[in-house]
Amino acid sequence: MASPKSPTRPTQQQNTEPTFHDFLPAMAGKLGGEGLIGELCNGFELLMDREKGVITFDSLRRNAASVLGLGDLTDEDVRSMIKEGDCDCDGALNQMEFCVLMFRLSPDLMEASRCLVTEAIEEEYGRH
Length: 128
Hints:
Layout: E1 11-12, E2 18-19, H1 24-47, H2 57-66, H3 75-85, H4 95-104, H5 107-125
Antiparallel strand pairs: 1-2
Helix pairs in contact: 1-4
GO molecular function: metal ion binding
Domain EF-hand: 73-108
Pfam families: EF-hand_8
């Protein structure tokens, strides 16, 4: 069982907002880019509506409780999660939207990606 200060559990700070350890950079380092995307796709499949092939309000509500143990999410929490990643405004998350959202929610991965893009641009345009 995880201890109260374990990085796998939310911790409470003075502002009472839970903070979570960002495991995506560690997963990316261990699995590599393709492996990480594969795991994100597996996560998508756990949360999606099997008939529609996307994560809907109902599938996220149901699977967040059963798969992720997040049964205390409010309807507003679930709507906000869908809205945050719903780029095409269809009210659901397709696999690409889900993967992009997971990257966006990982500050360390976003910074690493930003650095890689900057380096690539400098290499490409610095060679004139």
